[in-house]
User: Fold Enoyl reductase (ER) domain-containing protein from Euplotes crassus.
Amino acid sequence: MITCKAAVAEEAKKELVVKEVTVGPPQAGEVRVKILYTGVCHTDEYTRSGLDPEGLFPSILGHEGAGIVESIGEGVTSLEVGDHVVPLYIPQCRDCEFCNSSKTNLCGKIRSTQGIGVMPDGTPRFKDKDGNELYHFMGTSTFCQYTVCPEISLAKVNKEAPLDKICLLGCGITTGYGAVINTLKIEEGSTVAVIGLGGVGLAAIMGAHKSKASKIIAVDINPGKFERAILFGATDTLNPLEQKGKEMSELIFEMTDGVGVDYSIECVGTPHLMKQSFLSTKPNGGASCVIGVAAAGQTIDLSSEEVMGREWTGSAFGGTKSRDQVPELVDDYMKGDIKVDEFITHNFPLDDINDAFHAMHEGKCIRAIVKMFDDE
Assistant:
């Protein structure tokens, strides 16, 4: 057993409590990782805020981490002590029907146990100081100084890569960038609209720019985000609130000579924006991708006439085959082919992790990095 600190979500709608916990040794097929840095993502807040109907408490949140392998369980062959890793909330077993399919990245190997906050054998590895069990989160729980993950939920990465930067490739950047590269496969010369300019949206813009899109419209109601969007490759900006009485899709059609965009990507998570994003695409061959997650029970209504001629798809973790492609993204970052540092706007020590959530709500934070150990 290891005793360390973790930020525990004791109940919904309450701030996290940094407290002492114990972390059990890795069992067969598992790996224990010393987490050095973690990002704070809107998905963490979605659960903490109580909006997630499947949220479990008390739990250790966090899913944008990076660290070093501390110990391995029986049967682990792809990792060894000292390896640098990025935990993966979507595993890749490389063996199931879904891993062997080119149509999806959603490995089904441990989905049932991951969804109920335990390890594949049905038990947790976390306990508080009184011996009470704590739930795991998304199979990663990176808000703990040490975490235990299945071997198939860890990407081995270049040891030269800075862990305080590449932790972000565990979710947001990979999600937005991958939606463009893997899911939509945007072609050179295409026109693109990206709705929502948080970390995921900026990464989608980066992907569109990398794909040599001819027009990239960055959409947000916070004009303070436009300068950064242009840095990432946006050619045009749109604040729908500035033109009352017109829907976002109408404005995008006006910006594209009345034809709409080839591709749109919704990164906010509201049904109205999902619909408007879809309707902003060309009615004869446009395609829209939903990344944002709407609150439970919310639905979207579209007529058959609106759907006809367009394609609609979703994307989880950017369609990324996690263990194969995350190391490639780390290498791309090291070569300067993709941006990572530019997403980071705030840094906090673990004891101040709640300030990272506050910064997120203030609208000025793209990504906050939490340093897990004071002396590292």
Summary: The two ends are 21 Å apart (CA to CA). The mean pLDDT is 96. The longest helix spans residues 172-184. The chain has eleven helices and 18 strands.
